[in-house]
Amino acid sequence: MIELVIPQRRRSLGGFDVGRVLPFAKRRMVGPFVFFDHMGPIELHAGIPRDVDVRPHPHIGLATVTYLFAGEIMHRDSVGSSQPIVPGEVNWMTAGRGITHSERFERARREGDRIHGIQAWVALPEADEETDPWFAHHEGEDLPAWREAGVHGRLIAGEAYGMRAAVRTFSPLFYAHFEMDGGARGTLPDRYAERALYVATGAIEMNGARHRAGEMLVMAPGPADFVALEPSTVMALGGEPVGERFLFWNFVSSRPERLEQAKADWQAGRMKLPDGDGDEFIPLPAAPNPPANPIS
After folding, report:
1. Nearest to 273 by CA among 26, 111, 53, 75
2. Taking the model in full, what pTM does it have?
């Protein structure tokens, strides 16, 4: 049974718009997933200006998960990572006690590109919020895939469908990508307390109702089967709750005072991206001051 339908809302990242899904006023998290943005599809032409890139910015208390359906994005961060990502791969960056990163459209700038994908954040359990920051790139056998009856699936992270992805996670979760032919059927795993589907393209039917691209369906406990009404791209996600979280800008924490500390560190220039290419850093929003609304 569907508990809630969340429509994406358009938000500007400066150089382009995204469809923001989580957090939502009536549902701030799904399992540990605290943030979910749908990027594109957008055509970027050769010679695009640098201000289209996502400029260097900080994070604490979470992991960012970048997954693409089309295009290429270059990731750089303050622990020394420099890694392009293309479809079928995942960039998993654990911020922990603090990291800074940028995401750049370098291939698009050289030759043009079509960008389409999902940027998600996963809140870390309280015991792991201050872990050392690190970055991992995964492809191929690290992300188990399967084909059956008009469905091509890939497990991006966690454990589901009798498989486990090699991506290191800190709490029980699942995150999967379905490419579905019209008429193909899928299901959500039932072992997790919180689950959702996101229709990225196409349309699906669940419980006799049609749901279109740009909608997230948050599920109540129990069976959750769906059918693609046309060729569709669907993301499945969820896991066990990690408890109440406070969110301010790019910072997530179980303690509001930790957000204040992160804010001070960023303003004082103690969180920087040492790549020496002259990039400007995203400024801290002037208001509101943390703590922001708790997420649970």
Report:
1. 75
2. 0.93
